[in-house]
Design a protein that fits this description.
The structure is a single chain. This protein is α/β, with parallel strands linked by helices. The chain contains 14 helices and 22 strands. The strands form six sheets. Strands 15-16-17-14-13-19-20 form a seven-stranded mixed sheet, with helices on both faces. It has a five-stranded parallel sheet with strand order 10-9-8-11-12, sandwiched between helices. α1 crosses α4, α2 packs across α8 and α4 packs antiparallel against α7. The termini are far apart.
């Protein structure tokens, strides 16, 4: 059987993946320090002011030089997308699919180079990095497949019962127009390419703005869309701060829809601002999580410890799906906690491009400061079972933090509710599953969750948990590891705005609105 890399299979990859990654790493390092432009209306655009992207593992290592886009650049990118929208929307969906499948093929062809860049820029270990870019190609292909399977979302409806006339009624889903995608630092490939692919295949034109921490990865991805042969203006890529460039994009009334992935507070601000327009426009928001794991007294504790550790500390806890709240029934609490401590202390921390490393650095100086502040606060409120310290010595040039497990924090403490987005997980003893479920649902978020116990208990868990993506008895990850076509990804409550999960049956329709066409013979 041919090996397929996913977040569930990445823990035991064939040797060839390591070899090809290492070759690509050598090649990509040879390009460090280059300057990259924006892409507006099919042309490179350079700005007067620049900024650099540096490695969080070694802040002295400059990865690339990027453009500090202005409000004028935002205006020009939207103008290009607006001008291209009529022609692209009327391009037969089969032709759009062909171009986007070509983009997916280019992503596959460059997967190791872009994966190496992700390790350097985000701090992901090599398999997490390769997973990010491999998922991107699958998200684009899944959008194409859905468009094809639904025959462009054109459906003939019933005929009116009109005497002497024959009515033909057609339902058509049509694109909105110009779509803005603002992507996060933690999954710069998948959470850029997935929404871009969905918007483009449905006939929208796109302006893509990445996080300022990860412009390099997204520029390399943008080149795949460009090189696929998209008409000029259909896809535009801009870089710069959210407070200036991003704000100008959001405020432009010519933007017809937006996909944003990021923090709850920023996302809600965007939602409110976007609602100030002349009429309602679609806003697809994915806004993080405070994800619980419930462990029954009947659980396989070896499986639970492995799955929780992977989900709590993968990508240094900087996943909106990370396991951050662990509720354990009293009879197995001590046993599981001991296993979790052992697992966490066995994780290798260091250069994320090293094959034995599991934890790389956190994203930036702000996250590094947050880690210090949170662990200090938690050490006073409860007991740090393992971790709690930043790493110096040979790792002093980067933002390295220990995986941290905390117990005995009063359930009323604010950090049971607040998303920390760091390698910090909190554990709490419960008397029964009902208590665990009440605590699990007692947050404003509802993104992912995990459970370990019997099959009957798992069914009860699925029936009561308030979250969009839920796993039971999964060693590959208690709350993480969704993949398009397998586990569509999206959240409830404060974790998402649409109620439809990316990479699933109902997501693509969010990028279109319905038109009914009635023709009387």
């Amino acid at each position: 059987m041919t090996f397929k890399l996913t977040y569930a299979t990445m823990f035991d990859p064939p040797e060839t993946l390591h070899t090809r990654y290492e070759d690509a790493l050598t090649n990509i390092r040879a390009t460090l320090g280059r300057e990259y432009g924006m892409m507006i209306n099919g042309e490179e655009r350079f700005a007067q002011d620049k900024f650099t992207s540096s490695s969080p593992a070694n802040t002295a290592e400059v990865l690339g030089i990027f453009q500090t886009g202005t409000a004028q650049d935002a205006h020009d990118a939207i103008s290009a997308a607006k001008a291209a929208a009529p022609g692209w929307s009327r391009t037969p969906y089969q032709e759009r699919i062909a171009l986007l499948r070509k983009a997916a093929d280019l992503i596959d062809a460059r997967v190791f180079e872009i994966g190496a860049a992700i390790s350097l820029e985000v701090g992901k270990n090599r398999m997490e990095a390769l997973g990010d870019i491999a998922e991107t190609a699958d998200l684009v292909r899944y959008a194409c497949d859905q468009m094809e399977r639904n025959q462009g979302f054109v459906v003939e409806m019933g005929s009116d019962p009109l005497t002497g006339y024959r009515a033909t009624n057609i339902s058509v889903l049509k694109p909105y127009g110009v779509w803005l995608v603002i992507s996060p630092f933690n999954f710069p490939a998948a959470l850029s390419g997935g929404p871009v692919g969905a918007a483009l295949v449905t006939g929208n034109t796109v302006v893509l703005k990445p996080a300022t921490d990860t412009p390099w990865t997204v520029r390399l991805l943008a080149e795949c869309f460009r090189d696929a042969g998209l008409p000029k203006g259909v896809f535009n890529f801009v870089t710069g701060p959210g407070r200036t460039l991003g704000q100008a994009l959001i405020e432009d009334p010519r933007v017809d829809g937006i996909t944003f992935t990021g923090s709850y507070n920023v996302g809600m601000d965007i939602y409110r601002q976007f609602g100030q327009g002349k009429y309602v426009r679609p806003a697809i928001l994915e806004l993080g999580g405070k994800n619980p794991v419930i462990v029954s007294r009947h659980a396989d504790l070896e499986r639970a410890a492995l799955g929780i550790t992977r989900s709590a500390f993968g990508l240094q806890g900087q996943k909106c799906s990370a396991a951050s709240r662990i509720f354990v029934e009293a009879p197995v609490y001590d046993d599981l906690v001991g296993r979790l401590v052992k697992e966490a202390e066995g994780l290798k921390i260091g250069d994320p491009t090293d094959r034995v490393v599991y934890l790389g650095p956190v994203a930036n100086a702000s996250a590094y400061r947050d880690y210090k502040d949170f662990t200090e606060e938690l050490s006073q409120a409860g007991t740090i079972l393992t971790g709690g310290k930043t790493l110096n010595g040979s790792l002093s040039q980067g933002f390295f933090c220990q995986p941290t497990l905390v117990a005995d924090v009063p359930i009323s403490h604010k950090l049971w509710q607040q998303e920390m987005f760091l390698p910090i997980a909190m554990v709490h003893k419960v008397e029964n599953l009902d208590e665990a479920m009440q605590l699990a649902n007692q947050v404003d978020y509802g993104l992912t969750s995990g459970f370990y116990g019997t099959q009957e208990e798992a069914r009860w868990f699925f029936d009561h948990i308030q979250a969009g993506v839920n796993y039971a008895n999964r060693p590959q990850g208690a709350t993480t590891g969704a993949w398009p076509g397998f586990q569509p990804f999206g959240g409830w409550k404060g974790s998402g705005s649409s109620g439809k999960n990316a990479g699933g049956h109902y997501y693509l329709q969010l990028y279109m609105h319905e038109q009914i066409q009635t023709l009387i013979d």
